[in-house]
Specification:
Elements: H1 4-7, H2 20-35, E1 42-46, H3 53-64, E2 67-72, H4 79-91, E3 94-95, E4 101-102, E5 110-115, H5 139-149, E6 154-158, H6 161-165, H7 172-175, E7 176-180, H8 186-199, E8 203-204, H9 206-216, H10 220-230, E9 236-237, H11 254-263, H12 267-277, H13 281-295, H14 299-322, H15 326-342, H16 356-382, H17 386-403, H18 408-415, H19 419-432, H20 436-444, H21 448-465
Parallel strand pairs: 1-6, 1-7, 2-5, 5-6, 8-9
Antiparallel strand pairs: 3-4
């Protein structure tokens, strides 16, 4: 399943939600680069997570047909890596995507994007590092030197501006243009969510969109994730469907936590984000397990990562067997910090997926819900309870259909007049041509075994009458 934040990521600046003035300032800075090398060679985009900073940077590159070089500082943020990737890219000429050479004199540019730049911090003198350590080693100074020497535009993306400029980073205030980004207005987010529903051909009650907007606290990415979660295998969403989202703090979403777990060894940040999200460990372990294989690149890292998950699962089992919730924290740390510490090699950037288990659980819940709706519908037509409809009427309908499959269309048309069944029958209509009887059994959500059991029980009753 494709993450909607990637599937519907805007590629044009005029499609970005909110921050119109900030985007105009950024666009003006980019025009200065079209004329030559400006005084402010780099720009800092600051603001809370999920409000469109990274998307804006890539849309700017699309606007000017610039190639992009991204270095996510949580992947590898030491001086050697920054010099090898960012500095080299910033001081060399440009090749376009099609392989053609484009010099800066002819307007050819490449945009250097340093995401999560506020995660850079300088180690104390005398600190020791292992060869596999992914933490900072002169990363901030390397970025400062890159900006001073660059012949290409650079964008630094941060959540905390003051974290970036403190200490040795204070010179960045003179070197860079600072453009703050702010959470979009609620009505802008609601309109954007509505447009996604239209593209996905999903109908959503207005109250649902209002709830998601209020819940996300300006975080568009969080709102899109929540919308995708509640629309799994559903065509119409009501307000009660949002109860499955819980009440976690949306300032830090689970996708960001996964990114920290798989790409960094910043245990303090991982712990803080985990506490803010307040995800049930039984669900969190599903998220980590689903995306671990696609993130780690070597068998050794995968072995150690899954070993941590296995131990976490053992502790979760002891929580319920012994009713001892002290094991809860052990399991939680193993599935986050344990998996994070397991990596000793570079990891790949990937689109994180929803847990397959969570999707199948949602499907089972929908099946049960549809079952009760159809039973109530048939009960209303036959003037009996849904329990009686399930036990006494549906089995006979199954039996009739098995001998006369031609009545499937008639039955479907009759029941589809009711609003409860319309969507369900439309969904199953395409399967009817392949197997009419099988489709009808799905419609009434009952099994032939019910009829067989009823016949056997009646035979037993008849035998007792003659004893």
């Amino acid at each position: 399943m494709i993450d909607w934040t990637e599937k519907y990521r805007p590629t044009r600046l005029d499609k970005i939600v909110g921050n119109t003035k900030s985007i105009k300032r950024l666009l003006q800075w980019s025009y200065d680069w079209q004329k030559g090398v400006p005084v402010k060679k780099a720009v800092i985009l600051s603001g809370k997570p999920g409000i469109g900073k990274t998307t804006t940077a890539y849309a700017l590159a699309q606007t000017h047909h610039w190639t992009t070089i991204e270095l996510n500082t949580s992947d590898a943020r030491n001086a050697t890596t920054i010099k090898a990737v960012a500095t080299a890219g910033a001081t060399h000429q440009t090749f376009q995507i099609d392989g053609t050479y484009s010099s800066t004199k002819d307007g050819g540019r490449k945009l250097i994007i340093l995401d999560e730049a506020d995660n850079l911090y300088e180690k104390k003198a005398g600190s020791s590092y292992q060869e596999s350590d992914l933490s900072d080693r002169g990363g901030k100074q390397a970025i400062i030197q890159t900006i001073k020497n660059t012949q290409q535009p650079i964008i630094l993306i941060v959540n905390d501006y003051y974290q970036l400029i403190k200490g040795s980073g204070s010179i960045l205030k003179q070197l860079c243009l600072h453009i703050p980004f702010y959470p979009p207005y609620p009505n802008e987010i609601q309109v954007y969510l509505q447009s996604l529903c239209i593209k996905e051909k999903i109908t959503v009650d207005r109250a649902v969109l209002q709830h998601l907007v209020q819940r996300c606290n300006g975080d568009i990415r969080s709102a899109v994730h929540d919308l995708q979660t509640i629309t799994l295998d559903q065509s119409h969403i009501r307000l009660e469907d949002t109860k499955s989202l819980g009440s976690r703090d949306q300032t830090e979403v689970i996708f960001d936590l996964l990114k920290k777990i798989f790409h960094t060894k910043d245990f303090s940040t991982i712990q803080t984000m985990k506490q803010h999200i307040q995800e049930d460990p039984q669900l969190l372990i599903q998220w980590v397990a689903e995306n671990l294989y696609s993130s780690y690149t070597t068998s050794d890292d995968l072995y150690k990562g899954y070993e941590s998950l296995s131990l976490a699962d053992l502790y979760l089992g002891r929580v319920f067997r012994r009713n001892n919730y002290q094991f809860w924290s052990y399991a939680s740390e193993l599935m986050t910090l344990g998996v994070s510490s397991a990596k000793q090699h570079p990891v790949r950037s990937t689109k994180y997926q929803f847990p397959t288990w969570l999707k199948s659980r949602k499907q089972r819940k929908n099946d049960v819900k549809d079952k009760y709706q159809i039973q109530s519908l048939i009960g209303s037509y036959t003037h009996c309870s849904k329990h009686k409809a399930s036990n006494d009427i549906i089995p006979y309908i199954n039996e009739i259909i098995s001998h006369h499959p031609e009545i499937v269309s008639t039955l479907k048309n009759q029941l589809s007049k009711d609003a409860l069944a319309t969507g369900f029958f439309n969904e199953n209509a395409s399967k009817e041509k392949k197997d009419e009887s099988h489709t009808t059994k799905k419609v009434i959500l009952s099994h032939d075994e019910q009829l067989k059991e009823e016949k056997e029980s009646k035979k037993k009753q008849q035998k007792t009458l003659f004893l």
